[in-house]
Amino acid sequence: xxxRIRHNxxxxxxxxxxxxxxxxxLVVGALLVVLMASGVTVVGCGNLLDRxxxxxxxxxxxxxxxxxxxxxxxxxxxxxxLNGLAVGLMLQKRYDEALPLQERIVALDSxxxxxxxxxxxxxxxxxxxxxxxxxxxxxxxxxxxxxxxLTFLAQAQIEVDSPAAEDSLRQAIQTQSDYLRAYSVLVxxxxxxxxxxxxxxxxxxxxxxxxxxxxxxxxx
Length: 220
Fold this sequence. Notes:
By secondary structure, the protein is mostly helical. The protein is built from eleven helices and no strands.
């Protein structure tokens, strides 16, 4: 088993699935953004793609899915329809069905960092394939080396016991010194490695920057 991450507010150790669960919360809002990022327009419903996106926003997933499938029957590489259908399936927790669509989008669009993040979390949270999550999240980091993406990458690296996880988290903090999530994951990692002094120094560093470190403090 890989090193387990502990939630900082609890005394007992929790499995890495707890990290994955909290990670899902960080990206779930982004699913709704993918439709707009893929060029789908919800105003004017003048074509099938517009109508499908409008149905998605109304919560009519079966109706939207039927339209997306109709588009893809004629144009299998339509990124707008692929994105819309993948997002809808993920929101319905149909992760296995979303997977090949996400993989297809990533293969077709070499610049789509967001879909690489979504695919990475599908691999990590729902497919039991953490190494594939690492691979695709590395691609997202190359495209957009944000603190958030680096932290997502580190969480996948922790799952495969990669020592690179610490480097990714320290790079995240260097990239955005006030990104508290990176501190939280790194503090947990250091404590689980028995490096209490390093962890407390990191908490002190965050505190000196004016960050709210209450969630990083060890329970007494």
